[in-house]
Every structure is written in C-alpha cells, then in structure tokens.
C-alpha cells in the first residue's frame, strides 16, 4: 500500500497532518503526497511544489477571488491545484496538451500549468488566475468562445492596470499592419495545438476587446447580465435587448478595436 502524506498548512502556521477539513477530492490527488496551503479565501493543493510557491499562488488566488466576486456579485472560494508538471496538469484536466496556457479551469477547480505559470510576472499571475476563476464561478456551458474567453479576460484585466496596447500587443501589431479579422474568434482560433501561438494570443485579445466594448458602451452590469442570459437563452437572444445581433456587434467591435490602436 502506498503512503499518503497529507499536510494541511495554514499560511505561516504549523502543519496539521491529515487534517479532516481537507476536501475529499484533495486527499486522493497524488498517491505520493499532497501539500495543502490555505489563503484567506483560497485552498491550494500542490504536488512536489515548495510551500512558498503554493503560498504565493494562494495570495494571487485570494486577489482573484475578490476581483471575480466584485464583478459577479457572488462569493468565490477558489480551489487551485498545482501539479508537478505540464504533463501532470494535462492528465488531471483530461486533455492531450496544454501548450501556451499557464492555467486551466477544470470543473470547480483551477489547475496551474507550473512551467508556464512560473514564467509570468506578478501581474500576469493575477490575470491568469482571475481569468480561470471567472470560468469556474460564471460557468461556460452554452457560451460561444469569444464571449467565454472575452468575459474571463475582461474580469482578469479589469483591475490589472495595463494599457490596452500593452495587454493586447499581438493584436495591436496586427491592426497597425492593416489587418483585422472580419469575424469574432471561433473555436478554431482558440485551438491549443501549438501551431500558431500568435493567432491564439490574438484570439484572446479580440475576445477581450469585444467584452470590453460591451462594458464600455452598456456598462459592466449589462455585460454580466448578457453573459448569464447567453448561458441560458443563447447569445442571439442575450444581445437582442441591446439592439445588437452578432453581425452588428462584430461591426462595432471592429471599429472599437481599430480605435484602441489608432
Ligand atoms: Zn479561458
């Protein structure tokens, strides 16, 4: 029988081995041991990851929870899993690969892709965790990719303090070179196959600016309502009260994007 090591460690406190307060799904994550750290709102479970790294993730997850709660108006208590490698992260998420992603939302939890996450600066880490936590808290079923990813980036970048041309550098370069997609990004633009990382980056930025346009023009509460309506009634019916169709939104989004980089 393999040995299961469980350490529930309040940030800065003493370890409590085998704490009964651990969620059951954390106890069986890895047979050779799970280290759990807790932030003010978050729980972080790591595999072969230094506790200091897990504490940093917990701090960012706490900030992310605050930001997501602020937009959605609901209480958010993140569960973040930090595997030992991208391979382990992909296995946990049940996908073939996670190239280019620093974290993914998987059911009710956020899975960090440790190699890519470690390359981000502090702002990037907060943005990524806020983005994924938005997926977890708001749900994604029935929402088209541009709205799903754009909404998560809207919440992710909302308080990050980054100018649009900096946060959307790849799209800025494309637009300044006279190119801009004629349609909002579809599923193929978000394919994580490692073939065209530039296109993948621009797809997120295009989606982000579509949601940012909606928030700028109609208000953040309207954007949140539109997202919820799109989940239950579909995006066409969610846009209708704003006097928009996907086609008219696309035209206004293109003008908004051009204006951002003029
Ligand atoms: Zn996403």
Task: Describe the model.
The chain is of the alpha/beta class. It has two domains: about 1-140, Zincin-like; about 140-260, no CATH class. The chain contains twelve helices and seven strands. Strand 3 and strand 4 form a beta hairpin. Mean pLDDT is about 90; it is low at about 1-20. The chain binds zinc ion. Zinc ion (ZN) binds near residues 131 and 135.
**Major pleated sheet:** 7 strands, mixed
Uncertain spans? 1-20
Query: Class by helix and strand content?
Result: alpha/beta
In the residues, how many domains can be counted? 2
Broad shape: globular
**CATH class category label of the largest domain:** Alpha Beta
CATH topology of the largest domain: Zincin-like
**Global mean pLDDT:** 89
Range of helix content: 40-55%
Strand order of the largest sheet: 2-1-3-4-5-7-6
The fraction of residues assigned to DSSP E strands is 5-15%
Cα radius of gyration in angstroms: 19 Å
Ions and ligands: zinc ion
Secondary structure tally: strands = 7
SSE order: EEHEEHEHEEHHHHHHHHH
N- to C-terminal separation? Answer: 64 Å
Total helical elements: 12
Give the name of the CATH architecture of the largest domain: 2-Layer Sandwich
